[in-house]
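Lab notebook page, bench 4
Experiment: in silico fold of construct C2
Operator: M.H.
Input chain length: 229 residues
Purpose: comparison with the prior construct
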Amino acid sequence: MLSRLLFAAAGASLISAHFILQWPETAGFDDDAEPQSPCGGATAILNSTSPQIHVEQFAISILSTHPEAEWQFRATTDTQPPYNFTDIVPVVNSTGIGSFCLPSMSAPAEFAGHPGVIQVIDNSVDGVLYQCAPVNFVSGANSTLDSACTNATGFTASWTSLESIDGSDSSASGTMASMTGSTTGTASSTASSTESGTGSASSVAAAAIVTGVSGILGGLGLLAAGLAL
């Protein structure tokens, strides 16, 4: 599925498009409506055919047409707007144009067994843009990587200390990491898990940028080798 989506997206015009959420599959793409919160003018329709997302580890793949951007990743089990999104990782800075993949995202453990929405926010030269994907959260981790989970040549990304790029009161949960992707097929990170202030168990979110079909999440000693979606 991811391979087909990436191939189709590769034919999109890099001149007209802002960004496209490739996996999980976007609820809808309208270039002119992307500045509209929460989902870029699209309606996230949740049903049994929405892709399964493993809360302990899943991938997010994006086609970006902005040379520099900040990215925010959120999730919710609300099925109707206004959504109460949770920031699942800190803000990511990126440089470069083309596809990039984050193969080791995670969501709160309590999301498992519920339908929900993943939101991606892009803050770049064109302003703040939005895309959403309807999903079904399930327990466990998907750590088997597909060759389609790649970064474009010259694309790099790194974590920041920011929790939000659009004024949200949500706070990031999981792992804080410092990381830079490379174009040689590896990625390194320094990670430390954080603990929820409410006393509830927080999910451990190891986040890595992968180029090619493999990458190493050094902080957890995890070898990632392509995500079969």
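Observations: The chain has one domain: 2-224. The first helix runs from residue 2 to 10.
Next step: discuss at group meeting.
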